[in-house]
Predict the structure.
Amino acid sequence: MCGIIGIITSEKRNLIPEIISSLKNLEYRGYDSTGIAIIDNGNIKRVRRIGAPSDVFHNQEITEAFEVPSDGFSIGIGHNRWATHGKPSEENAHPHFDCGGNLAIVHNGTILNYESLRKELISLGHTFLSTTDTEVIPHLIEQSRKEGASLKDAFLNTASLLHGSFGIALISTDDPNRLLLAKHGSPLLFGILDNTLIAASSSNAILSYTNTFIALADGEYADLSIKEGSVTYIIGTILDPEKLLTKEVMTITDKSLGDMTKGEYESFMKKEIHEQPSVFRTTILGRYDEETGDAVLGGLIDYEEILRNAKQVLTVACGTAHNASLVGGVLIETLAGIPVRSEIASEFRYKKVPMIPTETVLFAVSQSGETADTLESVKEARRKGYKTFGIINVVGSAIAETVDAGVYARAGFEIGVASTKAFTAQLAVFYLLAIKLARERGMTPQKGKGLLTELEEIPNLMTKTLVDTESIVRELAEHYANKNICTINFLGRGIHVPLSTEAALKFKELTYLEAGSYPLGELKHGPIAVIDNDALSVIIMPYDELFELNKNSLEQILSKSGNVILITDEIGAKKLGAQSVDIVVIPTLKNTLLYPTLEILPLQLFAYYYALALGNNVDKPRNLAKSVTVE
Ligand code: AGP
């Protein structure tokens, strides 16, 4: 939530295009408003707009707003906002100034004690121009300066007064050769080039400039400056600034992670849906042994005994990651026979979960690795004595760094705000994990081998599913979007229930329409009351042991004149014969536990095309942010 950019360079140039292109790469973090500030000839110049950088920062206008001096700029900051305190408006957009307009800051996070700080600052004569929590920061620094502190001390004093979470970047006319950064709870790193340092909320914003980074940890600051014609930095802790730290310089080498373009696709979401076969392949690659029929999860290697002895599994996650965990739960319970409890992280944090930490292994699942509820759940679980593992997509993210160990979901950058390929990658990890836990609990090598062979086939079958279903799903989505359906429910049984939940989430996020999801058998216990000619039921029912039961439920819906789309496999389609319902056919699988990998594809496409038919922005649905770093 919110994206920060800061550039300092000893090679003066027009920094505005670099700031804008980095902000565009961070749009997934927030896109309701945006702003840039640079120091120009001893003054701070600022432009703020409502909307996303790619929609509002057009070349002509920006060139006019920032007239580039002949010797260029050496320092600037930028921000994309996802409003938490104060509605999206130019006044609330970052960068924010102090009263004197001598310093500008951008902030990602939430300041919990801003109301009391604001009151105090107002009583000291400060004037606030926004309704944000952030604006207390520049005024606190200004106040500390007035009381005699140096710029750096004022910055660090201020950071130490803030409760909540922050990633902050500061520039000031008092020292135009200095970019100050501080982090607590919100991600912040800086990239290193020969004559330039670039701060950002995420490495993907600046990978086109550098793949060498230093990531700040909670409670750390960085002082980036231009000295004697070159850039330099020091890093320390906010509460003990004199104690300097030597930090590891990280290099991102995986080129696929750097692909942040839409390529041939018209949207990131469509690209990411179509990347799923290769994501699945990459996620399982090198993580199993065909000879032994076992999964080989290097990240968990030091915890083999704990996994072997675990009596139960607990998952914590939010949104799509929770839905993937629910599928994972069915896999682990079915294959390994261990009870699994899947908790929504925002609930887990505040409730009593009567599980025994020493007998339980906890898996935190998250695409971003930043989700506040999941991160706090992990911290809480660790305090209680659980061993915590991660299934995380973003390497080096906060959750990945907090858990004891884990397995990365190798989905690459997911830019579309509605998660698609991360879900598939999480499923891939859960299949491997379930096989691993099962092999330790009596699954024969033969059975393990069989499952792994089928798992290897999944990427090809995913491609086939996309090819076979996309046009029919598109037609159906457009048909129902134009029909103005009043009610839509996604239904299934067993392992298909979490798929219906994920389908409904995707549908809500993209179409802005309410959608329900139920176990099919529950229909008759209430939800059937909504079925009529204006209701649509999407039923996930490939041919399996519950097929006949599912047919019963289908009849019940049809008898109430409901509209139906069935997602079934080739055998299921044959068995159904001529039906007055639309059928989307996916390939038949030997092992029915693997169906989620294929079913999800037409369900994602359905939400995607329905939203497009309504004229919605599929990459940046309204009100959402890619990483939910607030509670
Ligand atoms: C998915 O489409 C959502 N945008 C959202 O539910 C997301 O899955 C959730 O916020 C969890 O995010 P994480 O995986 O980054 O932790």
The chain has a mean pLDDT of 93. Residues 467-620 form a domain with the Rossmann fold fold (CATH 3.40.50.10490). The chain has 19 helices and 27 strands. The first strand starts at residue 3 and ends at 13.
